[in-house]
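Protein in question quoted for reference:
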Amino acid sequence: MKKNIRDLSFEELSLLMLEMGEPRHRSKQISKWLYRKNALSFSEMTDLPKRLTEKLEKKFSAGGLVERESVVSRDGTEKFLWSLKDDVLVESVLIPAKERTTVCVSSQAGCRFRCPFCASGTDGFTRNLTCGEIVAQVIMMRRAARARITNVVFMGMGEPMDNFDNVAGAIKTINHPEGIGIAGRKITVSTCGIVPGIRKLKDLGIQVELSVSLHAAEDKLRDKLVPANRKYPLRALIPCLRDYFDSTGRVVTLEYALIKGMNDSLSDSDSLAAVAKGLNAKVNLIRCNVSDRSGYEASPVGIAEIFRERLASKGVKVTMRRPRGADIFASCGQLAAKRLSRDTEEGGK
C-alpha cells in the first residue's frame, strides 16, 4: 500500500525532491497544492512537470479520506464519518461560528483509556492515525465547508498524547507557514492527563493551547471517571500542568463534564476551585453529553448553574459551554458506533 505524501514532514519532502533529481523548490509547490489548494491527487498539481507527477504516483498517494456519512445539526454543526485506507472509521466535526470556523479532529480510531461516559472508547482501541490522516481531516472539512478554517481542536476520537509523534507531526503541518498556516494559539490539544505527553507538548516549541479533561478534583472519584488517573494521579498531573503554564505562558483549561449525582455537588465545586486557582487555570463546564450506553445522566440545568456560580464566587474564571450538535450525535465516537452497529445488523440479514 502506498504511503500518503502528507505523512512526510516538510524536511522529508524537500529531501525527496533532491533524491528524485528535482530542484528543492518543487517541495514548496507540492506543499501549496496539498495544504492550501486542497489537492487530493497529483494530477491536480498542474504546475508540476509530468515526469515528477509520474514519479510521485509510483511511490505515494495524495488522497484524503472517504466520506461514509455526514449529518448537519440544527445549530449548523456538521459531523463527518470517514473511512481510512484500511476501512477503519473515524469522526470529525466542523463547528461554524460568527467569527471563526473550528474543526475537531480525531487522533486515534477508538481509545485505550475508556472513560465510562465517553463513546470514543466503548468499542476499544483499533489503531493510531498517521500524521497525514489527521491533517487530511482538516483538508477534507475545509473542502466541504468552502471556508477558511481558523481553529483546530484535538478533541475527537482517541487520546492525542497516546499517539504523540503523529499528533506532533500534524500540529507542525497545521501550524507551518507552508502548511495550513494556523497559529499555535488557535490549536488546542485535549488530554485526559497523560503526564509524559504533556511534558513533550511543552517542549514542542509551538504555543498550542492545552485542555485537560479533569471531571473530578479528587483522586477517588477521578479514578472512576478518568481511568488514566490511576497511573497519573492528581499529585503528578497538577505539578505538570503548573510547569506547562510556567514554561509556555499558556493558560490551561480544565474541562469538567457535569454528571448527575456524581461530580456536581457544592463540595465538588469547592475542590475544583482549589485546583483551578492553584494553577491559574480556566474552567470549562459542560452538562455531560453522555454515551447512550454509559448509564450516566447530565446534571440538571439548575444544578449546573449553581455549580458555575459557586466557582465564579471563588474567583475562578469559568464558562458554561453550550453543547453543539447534540441532535446529530456530535459527542466523540457516537456516530461511528451507530454506523458500526447498523452495518453489523445489515450484514447479518
Notes: The chain has a mean pLDDT of 91. The first helix runs from residue 10 to 19. The domain at 66-347 is CATH 3.20.20.70 (TIM Barrel). The radius of gyration is 21 Å.
